[in-house]
Each structure stands twice: as C-alpha cells, then as structure tokens.
Amino acid sequence: MNDCLLFFVKYPEPGEVKTRLAEDTSPEMAAEFYEVFAAEKLVELNVSTDFDVVVAFAPEIRKDDMPDWLGDDNQYIGQKGGELGRRMENAFREAFLLGYERVVLAGSDIPGLTPAIVAEGLNSLTTDTACIGPADDGGYYLIGFHKQGFVPQVFRSMEWSTEDVFQQTAKRLDDSGKAYVELPRLEDTDTLEDVETLAALGSVGPLGGKALALARKMTGM
Q1: Sign of dihedral through CA atoms 117, 91, 73, 126?
Q2: What pLDDT digit, counting tens, does each position of 88-136 carry?
Q3: Cβ–Cβ < 8 Å for 121, 181
C-alpha cells in the first residue's frame, strides 16, 4: 500500500481537548464526546481498503494508553515537535520514511470526513499537485502531498486557529509552484452549537450511535 491517511488525535484529557465546547458544557463532557467521536470516526475510516490509516497521537507520553482508547489493531506514531505546524510536518516526514508515496493528514473532529473524501484527496496527489480540504472556520481539515512534491513551508510560521489559515496555505502552495485540488468544504466540531446541529440530524447525520447519544445528552434533545 502506497497511500496513507495520518489521523491526527489528541488524548482525551479533560481540559486539554475541545476547550471551546467545554466552556458551554464541562471539560469532562467535552472530552468524553471527543473520545467517543474520534474512536467511531476511526472505525469508519478503517473500513476502506484504498489506504492505510496511521494514528498520529499527542502527547507522546500517552503511547501506552492509545490501544486502550482506539484499539490494538492500529499503527501509531507520536506527534513530534512543539507547535502544531512542526508536528504536522514531522508526521508527513515519518509517513514518507515508512514507505508511503501519497499521504494526507486529517483532523479527528470532522463529522463529514468519509473514506471517499480521503480517497479523492489521495488520488489527486502527484509530484506537482497537492490537495487541501477547507473548513468552514477558515482553516482546513485535510492536507495532502506526494512524497516527491512535499512543501513543508506551508507548516512553518503559521498563525494557527485563525480564519485565514486556508488562504495563507493556498498562497504558499501557489508561491511554491504547486497546483492543488480543493476538496469539499466541511465543518469541524468546536462548539455546543455544532453539536446541536449534529444531534438534530439524528441517525441520518454523520454521528455514530454512542456519539449521537452523547450529543443528545449534551444538548438536551
């Protein structure tokens, strides 16, 4: 297999994940929702036979806890580096060293992320073409490169969690001479309003059974 999805996760420690959601619920409830949601999303993505999934986790000291959360059958690598951009860059480099030629990296809080979207991104990658999936908040939920077309500059000196991350990244790709394929725009799950929308969709929406039950509990639906 030459294709890989780097599934970026953070150990669900209360107060360390989904902090905006925690402001309107509680650190414990926000962490529990993320814990269940990420686990169910990983199961969904692992169904695909078109690509391997490598779980890139943080912090590295949680290595021994990852199988208890996400299972023994996954391949795990620790996120290496201080700030987000460095960790993303290093994850790509590690995936290429593992022998993968086409790699996409995606967040673990994207309800609409599907195996089909991941495969679309991977299939678009060439030495001259990257891919990027814009998020509704101005950032991106997925980015991908061919091994021979990697542009690490897109991860350096970036002001993360701002509304122009996608535009800045697209400009850096343009400046590097790389074309890019823009994938469908998706939403992440940062606020109680986001969770309310997902709960309202019910079983026709993207949430699995346990995550949907938690979303309904959090929102009183």
Answers
A1: positive
A2: 999 999 999 999 999 999 999 999 999 999 999 999 999 999 999 999 9
A3: yes
At 59 the pLDDT is: 95
Q: Which two tokens stand for residue 86?
A: 């460095």
Question: How sure is the predictor about 160, in pLDDT bands with cuts at 50, 70 and 90?
Answer: confident
What is the 8-class DSSP label of residue 129? E
- Global confidence as pTM: 0.94
Query: Are the beta carbons of 105 and 89 closer than 8 angstroms?
Result: no
SS3 55: strand
User: By the 8 A CB rule, do 130 and 179 touch?
Assistant: yes
- One DSSP character per residue, 137-170 reads TSSEEEEEEEGGG--GGGGSS--TTSTTHHHHHH
Structural domains of the chain ordered from first start: 3-188 (3.90.550.10)
- DSSP run (H or E) holding 145: strand 140-146
Q: What is the pLDDT of residues 168-197, one digit of tens each?
A: 999 999 999 999 999 999 988 888 999 989
Q: What gap in Å lies between CA 125 and CA 137, rounded to an integer?
A: 25
In one-letter notation, the amino acid at residue 128 is D
Count of CB atoms situated within 10 Å of the CB of 171: 12
**Cα(207)–Cα(218) distance, rounded to whole angstroms?**
14
